[in-house]
Amino acid sequence: MCTSLCEKRCGAVSGGRGRGTGEKLDLYSWLCMSLLFSTLWGQATPQCPDSCHCAWETATVLCSDAGLREIPEGIPPETVSLHLERNYIRNIPESAFSHLVHLRDLYLSHNRIDSLSSGALRHLGPDLRLLDLSHNQLRQASREEFGSTRAKTRLYHNPWHCDCTLQELMETLNLEPETVNGIICESSVRGVGEGSRWEDPGSPGEHTGQPLVKLLDSGVNFCSLQRKTTDVAMLVTMFVWFFMVIVYVVYYVRQNQAEARRHLEYLKSLPSPRKTPTETDTLSTGF
Questions:
Q1: Which tens digits make up the pLDDT trace of 120-134?
Q2: pLDDT in the model for residue 26
Q3: In the chain, which residue ranges form alpha helices assigned H by DSSP?
Q4: Is pLDDT larger for residue 8 or for residue 184?
């Protein structure tokens, strides 16, 4: 449209005569070029997600306090810093950040995140420096969900259930030293003598209310504790099965003995066969 308009205006100007012909041509050419560049720039500029503010000069996307219930769509792939704190997000899908290859800072604190999809954070690039998941509702997490990220990670103020899986995750992540003591065991795996291993994981355990790092430093090993509990449970199960086999064998033997006694009594109750007179005389005379 701009090209055709320019051609018409330029043609009209070039067909005219007078002193202002060159000036009019320059003016219309400048207007057409300005309109063309504005159109192209609007198409090239990435769009900012709804309810967010984008600072293009710093590649920062601000979605804080936006009332979001899920990760917004349309986050520009050039984003370096993404702020999603103080929202109502509950879950992180697996492909939520797969296109953000330049992301360096990811803020997800003060949400309601209670679960991470398998590999939800695995796609974050090697440039990630900070991952903030503090002040959420996370109870359990594994190494598979975080992938190989080496970013400084914040996990404090979550209702963690301390077990072997969480211990292995803590040993893998690069936790922020200033906040590591805020990772508190809201509940813990139960050891031998603490109750059934099939109880609700939300039930408080021996280490409830204690910082996970201090427990690990003091020598507590949730992995060996879990294996010990499993071994004891297997031993108890084997003993119960052995006891049931013994009871069945004893019952089977007693049943057979009772049947044998009843059969013998039945045979004794049968009348004995009577001898004929001829057989008696023959036996008495010896002939």
A1: 888 787 889 999 999
A2: 62
A3: 2-15, 21-44, 143-146, 164-172, 212-217, 222-269, 277-285
A4: 184
Mean pLDDT within 84-110 = 93
Predicted local confidence at residue 276, as pLDDT:
56
Q: What does the DSSP assignment read for 191-210?
A: -TTSS-TTS-TTS--TTTTS
Residue 213's nearest CA partner among 176, 184, 178 is 184
- The residue with tokens 């991470």 is 116
The position carrying tokens 């005389």 is: 281
Task: Give whole-number Cα distances, 92 to 34, 95, 104, in Å.
Answer: 43, 8, 18
Q: Are 120 and 92 in contact (CB under 8 A)?
A: yes
Which residue would you say has higher pLDDT here, 126 or 157? 157
Nearest C-alpha neighbor of 119 from the set 96, 90, 139? 96
Two tokens, residue 72: 């917004």
Strand 174-175 relative to strand 115-116, pairing: unpaired
- CA dist., res. 145 & res. 121, Å (int): 6
Token pair, residue 175, equals 């936790």
Provide the pLDDT for residue 250. 77
